[in-house]
Write a structure and sequence with these properties.
Uridine Diphospho-n-acetylenolpyruvylglucosamine Reductase, domain 2, 3-stranded antiparallel β-sheet, alpha+beta, Cyt_P450, Cytochrome p450, globular, 12 strands, binds protoporphyrin IX containing FE, single chain, 5-stranded mixed β-sheet
Length: about 500
């Protein structure tokens, strides 16, 4: 394994006390012995570690580099140096909430022009994070989830209608496109009572196009300093401004319609309805404070984006693997037939009983965690496994994609798809913090149960109804735009024999 180190690099000066500065913090500021951390062998002056990598696949390139360099490594691109971590010991340290917290930097900070101090992009110290978290957490509890279930089923029925039509016409289905339709409609209906009409459109809804546009543009902030973007990429910057304006207009319209309907904030609501109802009508139980209009706008955008993009990828990868492994699909289907024997639609409680399907989903999220990395920063000077020193404010990117394939934890065949890795006894035998598709700690995913319920429900419904046939020429290609998605994935379907209600 090549482990280049810089000879006798000088220790960086200790940063001044006070809150860590915002904006990008290069690794020299936080890692006094950066010289001990390997980087790719051939650094190009000024450009950095760019040989053999592509701007389109930064995460997969980092995984390949991580395999060569080991559990802690660094990459420098255009003067920005980043420390990556994927070894189980080091990640366990980084997940220790008494020493580390979420770091809002890089890809997440780039989203601030769109999502501001919404839950996902808020800095830990911003008061709106705690306020919104406390107001919205009950919207993901058991009672709320049970109320979303019939709405989720309703959206899934529309997907099935679309897939039935494709099956009758002998056409392949566009898996990522249809999973995006499904998950966008699901979060829009359950969260905000809104219908984007995605299933009635052949092309993606303009909201999706604007969202993809602004996510792609956000990535460019990694390469070009934000103040220079309008000068270097004037057309893209104008397009981005139009995309953000469109997202904001759409959200404002959703909020206006709800206010006009008088559902919340009119004195008749106790704010225990959907997400929007809670945002508009609920006050903090202790302080009595509510969310401002501007913050509600940020939260609605956050939930519409975070609530569908990652789940659609997870469903798409799971369908890819189910189509490739008919034996696994048959086991999952037998379970679905057993839980819903008469072909009736699954009840809320029955979805949680689909343990094997859940393992299929976990295994898909292990191989392709659709949010492939998260960042952690040190709360005080500390030392990581392996003797790496980190200063307060120093941060690392946890490469979940590689953590989930660490051969020391997952074995020699870590790249193989095997849902039985998630049998309860296998899970118990593994150390903590080795499976992190939903992040960690206080800033872990608030929508985890929502995503899991939706995905297991939909996979069960689809498997009961169709046999899935892969395109024999298809080789998995993974697209990256903050989240991961199988690119160009299509499947052929055949209807299974009709059973009552199926
Ligand atoms: C398979 C699907 C999903 C995956 C893999 C996923 C993954 C993640 C991860 C890794 C984080 C932490 C990011 C960080 O530390 O920087 C996160 C946070 C978040 N997710 Fe998800 N997510 C999924 C579905 C959802 C859904 C369905 C919703 C909403 C309905 C949602 C809303 C959020 C929000 C609001 C946060 C920020 C939480 C906070 O900081 O307080 N996610 N998600």
């Amino acid at each position: 394994m090549a482990v280049p180190v810089d000879d006798a690099a000088p220790a960086a000066p200790t940063p001044p006390p006070g809150p860590p500065p915002r904006g990008f913090r290069s690794a020299e500021l936080g890692w006094p012995r950066l010289d001990r951390i390997p980087h790719p062998p051939r650094r190009v002056p000024w450009l950095g570690d760019v040989l053999g990598v592509s701007v389109r696949t930064p995460v997969q390139d980092s995984m390949a580099i991580g395999r060569r360099l080991g559990p802690v490594f660094r990459r420098k691109v255009l003067g920005k140096e980043i420390v990556f971590a994927w070894g189980a010991d080091v990640v366990a340290d980084l997940c220790d909430e008494s020493r580390f917290a979420k770091h809002v930097g890089l890809g997440v900070a780039n989203l601030r022009p769109v999502a501001g101090d919404g839950l996902f992009t808020a800095y830990n110290h911003e008061p709106n994070w705690q306020l919104a978290h406390d107001i919205l957490a009950p919207a993901f509890g058991r009672t709320a989830m049970a109320a979303y279930h019939p709405l989720m089923l309703g959206v899934a029925r529309r997907l099935v209608e679309r897939w039935d039509a494709s099956e009758r016409a002998g056409e392949a289905v566009d898996v990522p496109g249809d999973m995006t339709r499904l998950t966008l409609e699901t979060i829009a209906r359950t969260g905000f009572g809104h219908d984007f009409g995605s299933f009635e459109r052949d092309r993606p809804h303009p909201f999706v196009t604007a969202m993809v546009g602004s996510l792609t543009f956000a990535q460019r902030r990694n390469v070009v300093p934000p103040p220079l973007l309008p000068l270097v990429l004037p057309r893209a910057a104008r397009r981005n401004a139009a995309d953000i304006a469109y997202l904001e207009r759409t959200v404002d319209e959703v909020v206006r319609a709800r206010r006009a309907a008088g559902v919340a904030g009119d004195g008749n609501s106790d704010g225990d309805g959907d997400l929007l109802d809670r945002m508009l009508a609920t006050a903090h139980p202790v302080t009595g404070e509510g969310l401002s209009d501007e913050n509600i706008r940020r939260q609605v955008i956050t939930f519409l984006v975070a609530g569908h993009e990652t789940t659609s990828g997870a469903l798409s990868f799971a369908l890819h693997y189910l189509a490739l492994h008919p034996d696994i699909a048959a086991r999952a289907r037998a379970e679905a037939d057993r839980i819903w024997p008469d072909g009736a639609e699954p009840s809320y409680e029955q979805v949680a009983k689909a343990r094997y399907l859940r393992r299929v989903l976990d295994e898909s999220l292990r191989l392709w965690p659709t949010a492939p990395a998260f960042s952690r920063e040190a709360l005080a000077d500390t030392e990581l496994a392996g003797g790496h020193l980190v200063r307060r404010g120093g941060w690392a990117l946890v490469l979940t994609l590689m953590l989930h394939r660490d051969p020391a934890v997952w074995g020699d065949r870590a790249d193989d798809f095997d849902p039985d890795r998630f049998l309860p006894e296998a899970v118990r035998a593994r150390p903590a913090h080795v499976f992190k598709p939903f992040g960690t700690g206080a800033r872990a995913c608030i929508g985890r149960q929502f995503a899991l319920h939706e995905a297991v429900l939909v996979l069960g419904l689809l498997l009961r109804r169709y046999d899935l046939h892969p395109d024999p020429g298809y080789r998995l290609r993974v697209g990256e735009r903050l989240t991961l998605m199988p690119a160009g994935l299509t499947l052929h379907l055949t209807r299974r024999p009709d059973r009552p209600g199926a």
